[in-house]
Amino acid sequence: MATQRAAIIGTGLPGGSGRAAIIGTGLIGGSIGLALRERGWWVTGTDQDEAVAAEALSRGALDAVGPATDAGITFVATPVGSAAAEARKALASGGGPVTDVGSVKAPIVSAVANHRFVGGHPMAGSEQEGVAGARADLFKNAVWVLTPTDDTEDDSLVQIRSVVASLGADVVSLAPERHDALVAVVSHVPHLTAATLMALADERSEEHQVMLRLAAGGFRDMTRIASGHPGIWPDICDENSEAICSVLDRFIDALGDVRTLVAEGNRGGLLELLEQARSARAHLPYGLDRDVSLSEVRVPVFDRPGELARITSLTTDIGVNIFDLEIAHSVEGGQGVAILVVNAEAADGLLEALRKQGYAPSSRALS
Asked: Would you state the pLDDT for residue 287?
């Protein structure tokens, strides 16, 4: 598919000046640095712990330790509680776009409130902690959520999205509040559930030493995420407490329903629940198929902040993956064209959805 479009992300240096800055050089920040340097970027970085930044440098995640005012893009990879403050500092010291990697988005996006900032959340991790676990391929086929708003500058969104996509990630756009509600279901509550179950097993092991020797297969798989670094979770639970508590309430009610099925010996109801879960599990998506036929969808838009945020969020809502994205500004001002490269099979559905939103899109197949 190399002839389909020369600008498909990943074929060269995406956007910016080829200079990137990373604030926070742990697992995620270190992995971003490794991935960027592998693609030819010059990467500088800082960390609250100077020894961590020095280790990131020695491991090849950075070209230099220190701030960079001329960075084409800045990644804030600090804990959630300090991300907004660090993002504001980065925006004040340079002119490039800034993104973060926190797993809670609405409070950070609201606190930063800058048109060059796009909230981000790479949903990737490692069994290892810190920069020692950093890998250049950590984000390959991982979902990386971006949370632009109506105030987001289109060029900043395009550049950040291009860089993230070049790392091999499956990039999706969501409103910050929607992101927080969804990750409470698929990330935050599962982690708390795994931690609770692991703690319960640990308590019982004092009574029955053989219990943890029996903890193989499914139990180990289910509680694997409980091995993650605990230090990040108080901030996450504090910043996303409303969504997490809402999901926990629903989960507790659902567990009560399961208890009733078991207590009453309702074999039919229990089997129905297990079959539903089995079917849902079997239909979980597993990354993007990059070897597909592509179409280019062109969408005339007003040349103002927020247009790409609305369009990219729409593609997420209808399940269309964007392989490439750019904005062509009109030399006369006022109008522009958003250019999206998508799976050819999804193009018609995207055109229909855009027309329902008042846009006048067109498409052509890429050969």
From this structure: 58
